[in-house]
Design brief:
The complex is a heterodimer. By secondary structure, chain A is α/β, with parallel strands linked by helices. Chain A contains 14 helices and 17 strands. Helix content of chain A is about 30%, strand content about 20%. The chains are: A alpha/beta, B alpha/beta.
């Protein structure tokens, strides 16, 4: 019987002939932790009393509360730094050479087609955008992976998502994934993988990463794209070592099939307090206090280019705070080199270095009671970006940039119409 | 596993990890008292009302969102003996089973303050005289739960 990409990768990594529903013990290629999930993993590892450690497979990326926002987060970052130093870990990333973990995992070439990667961060599913099976885990199991190089996995059933055609102008991967989550619900893919088929060549790799990133918002264990020429080109300068792309078999078994005509996808916005509360932006009537362009979902250079093109020659609306947060030092540098910084600065945006910060309500852009934000991030739960009486509206980079200018949630086309 | 009883607290669908414990509490310095902050944004004062042995009952997709292990950890520290929900988000499920918080996947009709009895081996929840069955755990999960979590399995050389 044929296999899905998830079944193939988990079979290969566990040395078994695995199908959906089975529990396998699989060798992992990389295990990533951040400054929030790392300290619990380090403590659990210490309790094991073992010297065994798969150092080359471990990646430590502080990003949630760095640069440190207060003494407690400074202590936490210090714990991570000292753990890396003590164990002479090769893959620890200090600010200045770093970024939001999922962006860095791709940029630094850890993520690659066919690999099995786990991370103690729920958006680890991002690397499915480049044909990896990657998924979020907890801290204790990260410690287990440090010590054993493997983990248990329930092989997921897979939902096949077939796309046709091309996106319209100012519509992209974020709009598609918000539409999918709205259609199937926040648990529509719980315990399952999404696998993308059809005209995926019309979806940029940056957009694929954004789509896979939000598979978890439908409960998904992974969101996986095939590897094609676009993938190979995207990673050719940065990937570490060899990689083996994995395709699904033509007779693979899927638990559900969804079909989308990309041309019919409209700019989408998800209303509070669930990512599944999506509706077309044209139906929105929401004044905003803040617009946020950044995060592991939409903080790539491609997102910054989209935003800059829209705000070029325009000014951020009075009373609106526009936060632009490139997802890595590399994206930041590219923005400088391409002149995007100048465009955002002229528009009146606030630009910061890379951090998860405001996305999770950590710092650097917290919302007060009653405030509303349109955000290119991935979650709009109650109190996600600040006070429990604040509201987060999720949208793509084009809508976020246009809304920053308009002062209310609009598409770039509506902005031009004004 | 022995049967046990507890007083229930009732929550709805899609209880996310930000509700269970907000991101701003996720610093290592809080690790030994995470229970002080559970549900602080959506149910202020809740942490002070929970007693050891209480049971949390919820609807669909409990624990969705972040991979933060602080979520099940804070519920263990608060004293919850188990969580009963119609369904659980997968990372929360893994985390809980890996660190020894028992999860029961079962739709239970119960009011806050009532008492329920859980029979893990028998696959039954008994609430106010009504009986609800829940599916058997896969063998690996049973082993994990009986060992008291993943780290014990590793220490015993069974992983």
């Amino acid at each position: 019987m044929g296999k899905t990409i998830a079944e193939k990768i988990l079979s290969e990594k566990s040395g078994t002939d695995a199908y959906a529903g089975q529990i396998v013990m699989a060798n992992i290629d990389y295990v990533m932790v951040n400054d929030v999930t790392g300290p619990i993993a380090f403590r659990e590892y210490a309790k094991l009393g073992t010297d065994k450690m798969y150092k080359d497979r471990m990646v430590l990326i502080p990003d949630h509360y760095v640069p440190a926002k207060d003494i407690a987060s400074a202590e936490q970052a210090k714990e991570m730094r000292e753990f890396a130093h003590k164990h002479e870990l090769p893959n620890y990333y200090e600010i200045g050479k770093s970024g939001v973990c999922h962006q860095l995992m791709v940029e630094e070439g850890f993520a690659a087609p066919g690999r099995l990667i786990v991370g103690a961060d729920s958006h680890t599913c991002t690397y499915g955008g480049i044909n990896a099976f990657s998924t979020g885990i907890g801290s204790t199991e990260a410690a287990a992976a440090f010590a054993t190089g493997k983990l248990w996995f329930k092989v997921p059933e897979t939902i096949k998502v077939v796309v046709k055609g091309k996106f319209r102008r100012n519509v992209g991967g974020k709009d598609l994934i918000l539409k999918i989550i709205t259609d199937i619900g926040v648990d529509g893919a719980n315990y399952k993988a999404l696998e993308f088929h059809g005209d995926v060549c019309n979806i940029s790799v940056a957009d694929r990463l954004a789509i896979s990133n939000m598979a978890i918002e439908a409960g998904g264990k992974a969101g996986i794209f095939p590897c094609d020429e676009l993938t190979r080109k995207y990673i050719e300068d940065t990937v570490r070592g060899e990689y083996t792309p994995v395709d699904a078999d033509p007779d693979a078994k899927y638990c559900r099939v969804l079909e989308y005509d990309l041309y019919q996808i409209e700019p989408m916005v998800s209303y509070p307090h669930l990512p599944s509360n999506g509706r077309p932006v044209r139906e929105a009537d929401v004044r905003i206090d803040q617009a946020y362009l950044g995060s592991c979902t939409n903080g790539r250079i491609e997102d910054m280019r989209i935003g800059a093109e829209i705000v070029k020659g325009r000014k951020v609306a009075p009373g609106v705070r526009f936060l632009v947060v490139p997802a890595s030092q590399k994206v930041y540098r590219q923005m400088v080199e391409e002149g995007l910084m100048q465009i955002f600065l002229d528009a009146g945006a606030f630009i910061s270095g890379p951090t998860c910060g405001a996305c999770l309500g950590g710092y650097m852009g917290i919302l007060a009671a009653g405030e509303k934000a349109v955000s290119s991030t991935n979650r709009n739960f109650i109190g996600r970006m600040g006070d429990k009486a604040s509201e987060v509206y999720l949208a793509g980079p084009a809508t976020v940039a246009a809304s920053a200018i308009a002062g209310r949630i609009v598409t770039p086309d509506q902005l031009e119409g004004n | 596993m022995d049967k046990f009883k507890g007083r229930v607290w009732v929550f709805g669908d899609n209880v996310d990890t930000d509700q269970i414990i907000p991101a701003e509490r996720l610093v290592a310095a809080n690790l030994d008292h995470l229970n002080d902050y559970i549900f602080e944004k959506v149910r202020p004062g809740f942490a002070q009302q929970v007693q050891k042995g209480d049971i949390l009952v919820a609807g669909r997709n409990f624990g969705c969102g972040s991979s933060r292990e602080h979520a099940p950890l804070s519920l263990i520290e608060a004293g919850f003996s188990c969580i009963i929900a119609e369904s659980f988000a997968r990372i929360f499920y893994r985390n809980s089973m890996n660190i020894g918080l028992l999860l029961v996947e079962c739709k239970v009709d119960v009011k806050e303050g009532e008492t329920v009895e859980v029979d893990p081996d028998g696959g039954k929840v008994i609430a106010e005289g009504r009986e609800y069955a829940f599916p058997e755990y896969p063998p690996f999960i049973t082993e994990l739960v009986k060992a008291g979590g993943l780290m014990n399995l590793i220490r015993e050389g069974r992983f």
